[in-house]
Amino acid sequence: MAPIERRTLLKLMAGSLVGAASWAALPPAQATAGRGGKLADARLEDGVLSIAFDRQLRTRVGSGGKWLTRYQDSERLLLADGSAEAFAFTGTQLLPLDDARHGPGRQLLVRGRSARGIEKQVAVSLFDRQPGMAVLQVRYRNQGAAAVEVAGWRSAAHELADAPGGFWSYSGATHTDRRDWVQPLDAGFEQRNTLGMDSSDYGGGTPVADLWRRDVGLAVGHVEPVVRLLDMPVRRTDGGASIAVESRVPVVLAPGQTLVTDRVLLNVHGGDYFAPLTRYREFMRAEGIVAPLAPESAFAPVWCAWGYERDFNVEQILATLPKARELGFEWAVLDDGWQTNEGDWQIDRRKFPRGDEDMRAFTRAVRAQGMRPRLWLAPLAADPGSDVLHEHTDMLLLDEYGAFQTVTWWNALTQCPAYQPTIDFYVALVKKAIGDWGFEGLKLDGQHLNAVAPCHNPAHDHADPNESFEKLADFWSAIHKAAREANPDAVVELCPCGTAFAFHNLPATDQFPSSDPLSSWQVRSKGKTMKALIGERSSYAGDHVELSDGGADFASSVGIGAVISSKFTWPRDTETPTAPLPPGGYVLTPEKEALWRKWVGLYRQHMLPKGDYLGSLYDIGFDTPEAHAIARDGSMYYAFYADTWKGRVELRGLGRGRHRVRDLFNDTELGTVDADDNTLDVAFSEFLLLQATPVDAAA
Predict the structure, then answer these.
(1) For residue 632, what are the CA distances in angstroms to 300, 540, 643?
(2) How far is 683 from 658, CA to CA, in rounded Å?
(3) How many Cβ atoms sit within 10 Å of the Cβ of residue 622?
């Protein structure tokens, strides 16, 4: 039997209500009892993960022959009055699985009943291909005589006890303040981690959260093929730290109706969050969410004209191209400011007087310098005063009160991505930009790209207001398809300014940047995240190096295998900045030029984005100094980061034989190591980038 399937009569944001027939269609539960009528060992395990139920249908989680949690009310119906429904065990059944997408496995069904007549059935599925990861789904059926007011549901709720070193967490949810995705859990730490809208234009993300100690971790999330408005709360508790998946969608559960939760993952793991994110990616690939195979050019260094900001002139950009190409940059991005406004996307005739012909001339000039032109766009945003806003108000996304949703950066209004005229408008624009003007890539930009609110615009005739956010991924896929139809090698970069990566947009993403990082730590931690979520099929870019610590930290991009990028100006900065320039501005001074040239040379020589990022070798939270490893062409590359470090570093993952170690940035030999003697005494500030090459190969 396959995992419990959803049969919806009334679809909600998260979970669903179904009629009585679906419950009756389930196989009959078979009670197993031990001596004295006690529940026999209702347990499911795969050699990595163990889940056991008690007589109240509470669960505990174990691994490695020991229990990690106590029995907890892990799957719970949240009642509107705040009370907890207690369930008594009524039966269990173990079933074999042979799923067409995920292969063989086993499913444990455990059933219970509450005093007021609510029946609960928990289905736990383990698949042979995904050891350590369980998929859970729960049905709550009202068998009583009275309706029950439900505030939502909670699944995979567990608390890990304190351990030396404390806890770290990863959150795939978006926060308006653009906080770190990876954080230690200090005293009082609490994050709701909603996948809904955190503000009018910030929301969505990757539906996974992780909580780990030095010895073990628990990851949770949902594995539905479309986005869901769920929360993944993580908080520090008096005795440790807790994690869960929650839906806060209220509903009245009438007699005979059943509430079916979304499918939820629970993963026990060692190390940091890299392993569970990789498992999640593999599971969702089988669900059909797969990154496109990125063109070769997606790994080329990027120069962006944003250093000149919106009030650029074309001569500034064209004059900078020879210097960018000389340094080794291959992409030239025409950024915000080429258009009259966001919404109409008409060419600004003050900068391109001949309109389309000047735009074609611009892309020819870029290619004449041996570079590739890329165009900036912010789809789904329409400025006040734009023609499209007045002539096509039908495209707008409206809330239940008829109010607009705003994109705050441009003071624009959000258009609905699930409305066919909106899709057609942007597909035509993309085909024009690439097929007519000659751009070879797109930079799709804006914090509103991740998620939108439910749409109640009556002109759209939505079957459900939630179609707007559920079908946002389809909108991006239409854009990606249009770009590739116009140019099979086109690169589509998705840059949702400062938000978390929306995993369901993966099929439309050739390149994801660190998206306006606030620090070098964000460049690196986002990089580790994206290496897990995208894998080998797409590219991660470090975004403009000017956004890193000190504005020159190429080491944080190069060391983790990120595509490098810069927005330097030359020979001088813009005279009309829209915001104060940082100390020294963006101009490429002789000192900067020497440094940029060195880093671009190292990047192009070793091309670490094409290597195998080995994210499980080092724990980004607990290993010091912070370390990352990449295998490429028979060599191992190691990047270490710390303010200052003097002591031993361990080179993990070495193959057989001796390896010669080289400090790549300082171009010095550091000796030889092997798998049994894999440490070096080093001293460095900020970073250390090493290459370990087999001695035979080095010779």
Answers:
(1) 17, 17, 27
(2) 22
(3) 16
Residue 24 has pLDDT above 60, yes or no: no
Amino acid (one-letter) located at 623: D
Residue 185 CB: number of other CB atoms within 10 A?
A: 22
505: nearest Cα among 538, 544, 554, 551: 538
Average pLDDT over the chain, rounded to an integer? 93
ω into residue 625 within 30 of 0, thus cis? yes
What is the C-alpha separation between 398 and 113, in angstroms, rounded? 42
CA atoms of 409 and 312, how far apart (whole Å): 19
Residue 18's pLDDT is: 52
CA 453 remoteness from chain centre? 19
Q: Which residue has the tokens 């993966």?
A: 506
Question: Residue 392 above 70 pLDDT?
Answer: yes
How would you class 686 by CB atoms within 10 Å of its CB: exposed for 0-12, middle for 13-18, buried for 19 or more? middle
Q: Residue 16's pLDDT is what?
A: 57
| Contact status, residue 142 vs residue 254, Cβ threshold 8 Å | yes
Query: What is the enclosing helix (H) or strand (E) of 314?
Result: helix 314-327
Going from the C-alpha of 431 to that of each of 65, 386, 449, 481, the distances in angstroms are 58, 21, 20, 10
Element (H, E) at 326: helix 314-327
C-alpha separations of 635 from 65, 630, 682 in Å:
37, 8, 20
Percentage of the chain exceeding pLDDT 90: 92
Q: What is the DSSP letter of 263?
A: P
β-bridge partners, 415: 396
Phi-psi map region of 325: left, alpha, beta (phi>0 left; psi -120 to 50 alpha): alpha
| pLDDT at 241 > cutoff 60 | yes
576-635 pLDDT per residue, tens: 888 889 999 999 999 999 999 999 999 999 999 999 999 999 999 999 999 999 999 999
According to DSSP, the residues that pair with 377 across neighbouring strands are 444
- Start-to-end C-alpha separation, the chain: 58
Q: How far apart are CA 362 and CA 504, in angstroms?
A: 34
Q: What pTM, to 2 d.p., does this model score?
A: 0.94
pLDDT value at 697 more than 70: no
Distance, CA of 536 to CA of 299 (rounded, Å): 12
Both tokens assigned to 604 = 């192009």
* 562: pLDDT strictly greater than 60: yes
Residue 453: φ, ψ to 5°: -75, 165
